Amino acid sequence: MNTQNDQHSILQPVIDDDIAQAANRSRKKLVRRPGTIGGKLPWYDLRNAKLWRHAAQSVFLLINIYICMTFYYWVRFYETGGNSTFVERPAGIEGWLPIAGLMNLKYTLETWQIPPIHAASMLLLIAFLAMSFLLKKAFCSWLCPIGTLSEALATLGKKLFGRHFLLPRWLDIPLRGLKYLLLAFFLYLVIPMPVQALQAFLMSPYGLIADVKMLNFFRFIGETTLISIIVLTIGSLFIQNLWCRYLCPYGALIGIFSLFSPFKIRRNADSCIDCGKCAKACPSRIPVDRLIQVRTVECTACMSCVESCPAKDTLVFSLTKPKGEPGATHSLGLSGMAVALMLTLILAGTIGYAKFAGHWDTQLPEQFYYRLIPASQQLGHP
Ligand code: SF4
Ligand code: SF4
User: Fold this and answer.
1) Which parts pass through the membrane (predicted)?
2) Count of Cβ atoms closer than 10 Å to residue 122 Cβ
3) Which one of the ligands is nearest to 39 CA?
4) Which of 55, 92, 288, 316 is 20 to 30 A from 204 (CA-CA)?
């Protein structure tokens, strides 16, 4: 502990130079965030939201790798006519069927009945929407495996090239609209569908094994898809969150729900020393240092801004104004641990309910799988 304190005292004058200069420029007295060096908490400090976020991302990524591998072996069992090792179908694969989730949501809203096929895809979609309704787009930066891989590529890109490349505003703004166009396209397909058509699609051979079709899409990948993935992967090294920022329709939907989130990033302009570290740290390029509340659909609740702020009770992810602002005696700011806990509770609660109510596993007689899975490549869209 002493060694750590010694390190703090040796490093602090050097690292904090720019913070001290910012405080001087703003003519405000800087009250430091407790435990910080250069405005930041050490990575291993349990108060550091980044530690919890990276832990949540890693666990969710590993769970998804496990789900995909198990699902592959489950598919192989039926493809080989039962001549390979049997594994249980991982119901979590339904999280990869957002269109089926959307169709089932529409079906449920119209009939008030939970559909028998791919019900978990709808329940997981509802859980992710509930997260954004409460905690901005936390799903994107805390749980989504694609978001995690995007972030890893951006970090690697920064190591290789020394910086992230930014598109000019005239290109950035229209490109950000692309994800809404993709979302509008999917909503246009699903929303006008009558219940009978939804039912016919989901109960068709294609709908019954939509999860297998999705796996096959990547197993027997087409040239265009492969080129697109390679371009996106290389592009993500240069442009931070390329897929999430410009193209992800799921993120677009979640972003719309996030507008209603009562928890927001809030800044106390009185204690802010205008150092600009929050805006610099924001992967979504939000000018946090110039806002009192971050309301935009682009905020993913990653808390990178909060973790880079050197001033105590100045930047918080909270329900109310930061402590110290006129009329604010308590700060209801969330710690990283609290966000991780809330996300876990929403997800575990949804899965627990789905299991308890019998909606977690799609119950199809085995002979369907024996018949449909080996022929899955020949099944076309109904
Ligand atoms: S405003 Fe803060 S929480 Fe929101 S995306 Fe930017 S850094 Fe993350
Ligand atoms: S809110 Fe932003 S600009 Fe203000 S002190 Fe914190 S990091 Fe610096």
Assistant:
1) 55-75, 117-135, 178-197, 217-239, 246-263, 332-354
2) 25
3) 2
4) 92
State if residue 313 touches ligand 2 by the CB under 6 angstroms criterion: no
Could you tell me if residue 362 is inside a domain? Answer: no
Q: How many domains does the chain divide into?
A: 2
Task: Determine the distance separating the centroid of ligand 1 and the alpha carbon of 194, expressed in angstroms.
Answer: 39
Ligand 1 center to residue 218 CA distance, Å? 32
Q: pLDDT value at position 6?
A: 43
Measure Cα distances from 79 to 73, 91, 382 in Å.
10, 19, 22
Is there a single domain that holds both residue 149 and residue 296? Answer: no
Is residue 228 included in any domain, yes or no?
A: yes
Secondary structure class of 2 (helix, strand, coil): helix
**Residue 98 within a domain:** yes
pLDDT at 17: 75
**Cα–Cα nearest to 311, from 352, 267, 280:** 267
**Range of the structural domain that residue 320 is part of:** 2-41+263-334
Six token digits for residue 211: 């999860």
Same domain for 75 and 208: yes
Are 216 and 233 members of one domain? Answer: yes
Asked if residue 187 and residue 93 are part of one domain, the reply reads: yes
Q: Which ligand is nearest to the CA of 49?
A: 1
Task: Report pLDDT digits (tens) over 72-118.
Answer: 999 999 999 999 999 999 999 999 999 999 999 999 999 999 998 89
Nearest to 71 by CA among 93, 49, 52, 56: 93
Substitution site in 144, 164, 303, 318 for ligand 1 pocket (most atoms within 8 Å of beta carbon): 303
What is the per-residue pLDDT across 225-270, written as a single tens digit (0 to 9) for each? 999 999 999 999 999 999 999 999 999 999 999 999 999 999 999 8
Taking only the tens place, the pLDDT of each residue in 164-206 is 999 999 999 999 999 999 999 999 999 999 999 999 998 999 9
Task: Quote the ligand 1 centre to 319 CA distance (angstroms).
Answer: 15
Same domain, 223 and 149: yes
Is this structure's pTM higher than 0.85? Answer: yes
Q: How far apart are CA 8 and CA 49, in angstroms?
A: 20
Q: Tell me what pLDDT residue 377 has.
A: 86
Task: Report if residue 382 sits inside a domain.
Answer: no
At 26-75, the pLDDT tens digits run 777 888 888 888 778 988 999 999 999 999 999 999 999 999 999 999 99
Q: How many residues does the chain have?
A: 382
Give nearest CA residue, ligand 1 atom 8.
302
